[in-house]
Amino acid sequence: MTKRKLQWHPGFCAALRIAMQDQMEYLEMQEEHLLSKKPLQMDVLIIKKVRDIAIQNRIGRMFRTYNIIEYKSPDDYLSINDFYKVYGYACIYQSDTDRVNEVDPKELTITFVCSHYPQRLLRHLKDARGISAEYQGDGIYYLKGDPIPMQLLIAPKLAGTENYWLRSMRTDLRAGQEIQTLMAEYEKHRKSQDYAAVMDLITRANWEQMEVEKKMCDALKELFAEELKEADSRGRTEGRTEGRAEGQREMVRAFLKAGADLNMIREASGFSEEQIERIRKDIKE
Fold first, then answer.
1. Which H or E run includes 142?
2. How far apart, in whole angstroms, are the C-alpha atoms of residue 212 and residue 176?
3. What pLDDT score does 227 carry?
4. Is 133 helix (H, G, I), strand (E, B) or coil?
5. pLDDT at 53 over 60
6. What are the b/e assignments for 8-46, b being 16+ CB within 10 Å?
């Protein structure tokens, strides 16, 4: 689980759609938008379909018609080269069209999203380009001094309920209240593919903390489904070979080790709460 390389960008796109969901009727989001036939692609391109509509979400207030977004995962950083690469994307996107000025340069914006304040980059931009970072509050900086409007978002610092999932895309969530709140929020939207994609990513990125918590709400039941299936199988196999009572006890042990909640174990085994607690005590000893 921990060795598997995490695919942060699909989760980021899902979280971004969640953050902008109240405005998505006015927006068109294209993930990994190809700039040309060569392997050049943006992380996200958001096209505002109705020019006169003002986007209410704070991270979208700066948006114009064509909005290029560069995302860096929590363990990555925004470098000087990243800036020029994305700035180049904006220039290519404007110029690689069938008609001259088909994409109005005045309708372009660039948004950089990262987890760490890019001090070296911002110092370079100020010294080399005369671009200064003006803090707008809640993790948002406007990069002033260039014809193309640009902003920098520090994801963990973003505020507002609409940005909850964007700022939760971290590897350092704390067991306890923070993860319990995350689970509760997911429960409200668990049938949504976007919420499920973000929750799966966050869970995998914070696996050790999730194991500490293991409250087995529906969110984690889905993620532990295979483990629980194996536990149930082991218990039922033991029941056939060593007798029903011992098999049920083995099933309870397996479920306890997998982190299942008390109600689930009672329903599956038919044991009382007192019997289950005695088995739990035996495991600890």
1. strand 140-144
2. 9
3. 54
4. strand
5. yes
6. bbebbbbbbbbbbeebeebbebebebebeeeeeebbbbb
Statement: residue 165 has pLDDT above 70? yes
- Tell me the whole-structure pTM to 2 decimals: 0.71
Tell me if 249 is assigned to some domain: yes
SS3 73: coil
Is 3 among the domain residues? no
pLDDT in tens, 250-265: 767 767 766 666 766 7
Look at the chain and report how many structural domains it folds into: 3
Higher pLDDT among residues 238 and 5, named by residue: 5
166 near 175, Cβ under 8 Å?
no
**What is the spatial distance between Cα 252 and Cα 93, in angstroms, rounded to a whole number?**
59
Confidence at residue 142, expressed as pLDDT on a 0 to 100 scale? 98
Can you give the pLDDT at residue 226?
57
> In this structure, are 160 and 207 located in the same domain?
no
User: What is the C-alpha separation between 202 and 86, in angstroms, rounded?
Assistant: 26
Q: Which tokens in the block code for residue 221?
A: 């039941």
Q: What is the pLDDT of residue 51?
A: 87
Phi and psi of 187, rounded to 5°? -55, -30
29: left (phi over 0), alpha (psi -120 to 50) or beta: beta
The predicted pLDDT at position 228 comes to 53
Whether 115 contacts 72, CB under 8 Å: yes
Strand partners of residue 150: 110, 143
98 with 104: CB under 8 angstroms? no
Alpha-carbon span 256 to 230, nearest angstrom: 13
Look at residues 153, 151, 123 and name the one whose alpha carbon lies nearest to residue 138.
153
Please check whether residue 2 lies inside any domain of the structure.
no
Which residues sit opposite 109 in a β-bridge? 67
For residue 127, what are the domain limits? 8-170
Intra-chain end-to-end CA distance of the chain, in Å? 28
